[in-house]
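ok trying this again, last paste got cut off
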Amino acid sequence: MSLKIKRLSEWVCELEKTGDMLVPGRVYADKETMEELLKDYDEKRTGGFTPALGQVLNVACLPGIVNASLAMADIHPGYGFPIGGVGAFDIETGVISVAGVGFDINCGVRVLKTPLTRSDVEPIKEALANQLFRDVPSGVGSTGEIRLKENQIDELLVKGSKYIIDRGYGFAEDLEYTEENGAVPDALPENVSARAKERQFKQVGTLGSGNHYLEVQYVEEIFDNEAAMAYGLEKDRVLMAIHCGSRALGHQIGTDYLKTLEAASKKYGIPIRDRELVCAPVKSPEGQRYFTAMNCGINCAFANRQAISHLARLAFSRVTGTKPETIKLLYDVAHNTCKIETHAINGKTKKLLVHRKGATRAFGPGRIEVPAAYRKVGQPLLVGGTMGTASYILRGTEKGMEDCFGSAVHGAGRALSRQRAKRQWRGTEVIRELGEKGIIIRSGSKSGVAEEAPGAYKDVDKVVNIMHNAGVNAKVARLRPIACVKG
């Protein structure tokens, strides 16, 4: 299907509704970004691969989709849905898809505020990086100190963060500053396979590998004083950011339910333009089984980041003497989920099933889901950059609620595949070059560092500015790395 594109503004393009599309596509991109996406589309669609714009188009053809198939400014090809993709579906007529969530269910970012400043940490950053690397398990197949049996896993999958806090890992106030208070409802462990649970028995409290990290950062610049004050941020304040998800359990849930939803697509006669987009009606037995299993994955990831927070607080305390209770949680937010939310559609309030694949929930001012301390300015958005550049804290806006169901970018977005990155960089060279810039890297995998080389990602400043200038996300602060632990 050919693309018909019109520019709505300097920062937003529309893929006009043609052919099988039920709604238009909307892509947050400036002129240069759109030119790159179009070039990629022309090159890849003839080579058997579905480029990102093709995935936006395919999602727009799914039954029950509402308003538009959306792509945030960090858009790049994913599994079925583009990464950076958002699709909201009518509960009665819409579908649910594994591809709209991803295999790392509730991969997300959690940011902790320490009482120290950059000048306090710079002299001890190497010791701090070493301690964090020792105390927080990372890497492929890593195991943690929390060992669970099946009945305990089931309880964790229902209770999420609270289960971990009740075991002494963190503080009750952490729940207030975690999306969904650390657990979504309608999580049914009986719909999670024994294999998925077995893979998680020893992985709670572990970072994993790939693009997951634990990073010590400082606030380089404040853009929005009112929001920064509400979030408790100030220039040079040292933060710790945790990026990870549901580990092997989430991946297994996705793998298991691909087969279920493939059969459901055929059973219910759902037209599928890409086999990766297999899905089921939201209210079908198959759709509900996946939804309730996926919710277990969401809660598992909240629990995992809660456990890592505890380990990071203790490690930070051992090196700096700071008391763990003085390291406060700023926020924890997901970027691989599918949730039932209430949104205004054509002036009427409606419940929708919102898929966010590599996109962050970004609720604006006044939403009751936002912590009371932040409600006036909107929800914090935690945007990971690269270990050599910058990360951002943004906030949700009213325009973002109206235009994209309260959604945001989740990171810089990959510019090169992991294989291409490994061919272009060597891990030892990346570590050396970043060390020369004053950024300490600790990792058990040199090839993993090469995959995550800063040059393998888009320009995070540009990505964030597109969303900020479009008015759907607003800049609050830019963060720079001091030390980074990679899987």
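PB: full thing came through this time. Residues 206 and 417 are 24 Å apart (CA to CA).
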